[in-house]
Amino acid sequence: MAEEIQFLDEELNEICVEIRKGVDELAGGRFKGDARAEKIAHINKRLTRAKQVLHSYKVELRELSPEDLPQFNQKSKEYNNLISKLSNDFSAAKQAGDREELVGGRSTTEIDPDKMTAKEIIDTAKKVQDDSKASTMRSLQKVEQAEAIGKDTAATLKQQTEQLKSIHAEVEEVESNIKRGAKLARSFLKSMATDKLVIVLICLIVLAIVGIIAYQAAMGQGPLANFTSGV
């Protein structure tokens, strides 16, 4: 078990280093527009993965020997604090970037309408409006993509449902054929039993007749005895 938790320890360390680098790049304003959105999505995924690995890490702690437990238990607490800090730093960097994009690259302390000319105010308002339109268009595109994915998923589910119905109908038909076959088999066996009984009865009758004739012949009675005497 120590080998398994050691592997998780190495993976957690690599993920945390990667997240720290991404958060620092995001805070430094290296990414804009779609590139920034992709970076944010990637960091989100890595944070989720880090939490999943940490959960597995804590589960593995239960299997450790008393000698190994203190060391890895301490590391578990350190990773928990580190992931929380990375998550907070990521949120702060994201919010700061959102504000910066909203005002067109200016910090909020630089925006003072009393110190701006009419043209600067108009340009800033136009920039905010354009950014809002671009953001709205991106949101609409994402909605359309989600709608398309939803339609494709619904079509796939419908197709799979139809396939399941077809399979269910075929299974019912097979079961019906099996029941019908079993019924025919029972009927055939009953018929064979009846035929055997008839054959046995006929054999018994024939044997009885032969026995009677033989008996009469032996006792000198009956037609066979008369025929034998005449000869």
UniProtKB/TrEMBL annotation:
GO CC annotations on file: endoplasmic reticulum membrane; ER to Golgi transport vesicle membrane; Golgi apparatus; late endosome membrane; SNARE complex
MF (Gene Ontology): SNAP receptor activity; SNARE binding
Record membrane topology: Single-pass type IV membrane protein
Keyword annotations of the record: Coiled coil, Membrane, Protein transport, Transmembrane, Transmembrane helix, Transport
Compartments (UniProt record): Membrane
GO BP terms: intracellular protein transport; vesicle fusion
Residues spanning the membrane: 197-218
Highest taxon listed in the record's lineage: Eukaryota
Family annotation (PANTHER family): T-SNARE COILED-COIL HOMOLOGY DOMAIN-CONTAINING PROTEIN (PTHR21230:SF79), VESICLE TRANSPORT V-SNARE PROTEIN VTI1-RELATED (PTHR21230)
Name of the protein in its database record: t-SNARE coiled-coil homology domain-containing protein
Organism name: Palpitomonas bilix
